[in-house]
Amino acid sequence: MTANELPNMHFSSSLNKRLSNCVYALGLIFTFLVTSLPVKADVEKGLAAVKSGEFAAAFREWRPFADSGNPRAQYYIGELYRKGFGVNKNTSTAIEWFQKAANQGLPEAEHEIGASFQFGIGNVENFDKALIWYSRAADHGYAMSQYQLGQYYCNGEKVAPNPERCAFWLKKAAEQNLHEAQYAYGTRLVLGLGLPRDIKTGMEWVLTAGYSNHAAAQSFLGYVFSDGLGVKQDHVESLHWYRKSAENGYSEAQRKVGIAYLFGRGVDKDSVEAVKWFKLASEGGDVSAQLMLGLAYDTGDGVKQDYQKARRWYQKPAEQELPSAQYGLGRLHFHGLGGPINKNLGLHWFHKAAENGDEKSIKTLKLLGEFRQTG
Questions:
Q1: CA distances, 253 to each of 3, 87, 161, 174, 212 (Å)
Q2: Residue 375's pLDDT is what?
Q3: Counting beta carbons within 10 angstroms of the beta carbon of residue 148, is it exposed (0 to 12), middle (13 to 18) or buried (19 or more)?
Q4: Does residue 364 form part of some domain?
Q5: Which burial class, exposed, middle or buried, applies to 165 when counting CB atoms under 10 A from its CB (0-12, 13-18, 19+)?
Q6: Would you state the pLDDT for residue 43?
Q7: Average pLDDT, stretch 222-246?
Q8: More confident residue, 44 or 208
Q9: What is the pLDDT of residue 2?
Q10: In the predicted model, what is the mean pLDDT of the chain?
Q11: DSSP three-state, residue 49
């Protein structure tokens, strides 16, 4: 396996999507035990019950306070209904309780109402209303809403791009130690994504998130040191950060650790160790790692050669339009390696790879007299 066989991957191509998609998942975290806002004594018994896993008892403690208008108790009751803890799960009822608390200015509840309008959960999807409620929560100091607003204005997602508001809200959330915001703000500054480029400040924020064990930030630090992006290129330091991220289960970093072992970047070459990391990343759904694993089984590099397994691992990345996987899969089918000969299927994958610019497939099709010019 050579460096030329590696997929052409660029870190920043998927960054915006990753930064945006995590928002609702983060907002859904059960917040009883992690809320940073003061907890009044009148709901403490319910919190104690939650810590013991006695959710029905927590409901009984909170319900009278919620009925009498206590916003935090209303919010907690909403959480119980949303998760189905101690009560039957009921999203509509959860939203009703969140709305009661939000109407009294409780930031967590305002955020949840914003999310309900953004994603159409318990409310009809309505971005304008989502923006109103996120803005209220952000103005009240809620870090997750500040982060969400920052992402909107950075990406120009249903609002006009606004670098000033992007920076203002992401920095606000980052300063409250929201690691996702630290990562988002830092990477945008380093790469100049939606913000004026400021590598020094950006690295400070990404390092803060990385030292706090944020896996995506750690992976990004690996990328920065690997490419020498505004810092001295250092493959040892790169591997250090990729390994930390990989050990936190981040599949992209697991693939990068595998590549480091495969080519001896910051560590002695070790194809067997490389395959171990490619397997972990592949099982996590990383299609580029699946390609690398297919190549390993195809060539017998770091693992016993097995064309049948090579076919299996090439299949998913080929379906995801990775031309190297399409070429490899075509070759195996065309020559009957790892299964019966199927020249038509082999040609199909050669053509797919050629359409994606794969030079090996183009050359093969020309030799076979099957090349067709497109475009």
A1: 18, 40, 30, 23, 17
A2: 54
A3: buried
A4: yes
A5: middle
A6: 86
A7: 96
A8: 208
A9: 41
A10: 90
A11: helix
* DSSP letter string, 60-82: HHHHHHHHTT-HHHHHHHHHHHH
Q: Is residue 122 part of a domain?
A: yes
CA distance 324 to 59: 56
Query: What is the distance between the alpha carbons of residues 207 and 175, in angstroms, rounded to a whole number?
Result: 14
Structure tokens at 180: 């996702």
- Which of 113, 140, 167 represents a domain boundary (last residue)? 140
Contacts of 10 (CB under 8 A, 6+ apart): none
Three-state DSSP at 346 gives helix
User: Domain span at residue 368?
Assistant: 306-375
Q: Where are the alpha helices (DSSP H) in 248-337?
A: 251-263, 271-283, 287-299, 307-319, 323-335
Number of folded domains in the chain? Answer: 2
C-alpha 88/C-alpha 180 separation (Å) is: 32
Share of the chain above pLDDT 70, in %: 88
CATH assignment of the domain containing 52: 1.25.40.10
Residue 67 confidence class, pLDDT cut points 50, 70, 90: very high
Q: Alpha-carbon distance 72 to 80, whole Å?
A: 13
d(CA 334, CA 62): 67
Q: How far is Cα of residue 352 from the mean position of the Cα atoms in its chain? A: 28
Least confident of 33-37, 134-138, 173-177, 186-190: 33-37
Q: Identify whether the C-beta of residue 113 lies closer than 8 Å to the C-beta of residue 136.
A: no
pLDDT band at 132 (very low <50, low <70, confident <90, very high): very high
Does residue 276 lie in a domain region?
no
- Can you say whether the dihedral through the CA atoms of 359, 360, 361, 364 is positive or negative? positive
What is the mean pLDDT of the segment spanning 245-263?
Answer: 98
The answer to whether position 39 is within a domain reads: yes
Which is nearest to 197 in space by CA: 183, 185, 182? 185
Q: What is the pLDDT of residues 7-63, one digit of tens each?
A: 333 333 344 444 444 444 344 334 544 343 454 566 899 999 999 999 999 999 999
Amino acid at 374: T
Cα–Cα dist 316/275, whole Å = 17
Q: Which of 111, 140, 169 delimits the end of a domain?
A: 140
Whole-number pLDDT of residue 40:
59
R_g (Cα) of the chain, nearest Å: 25
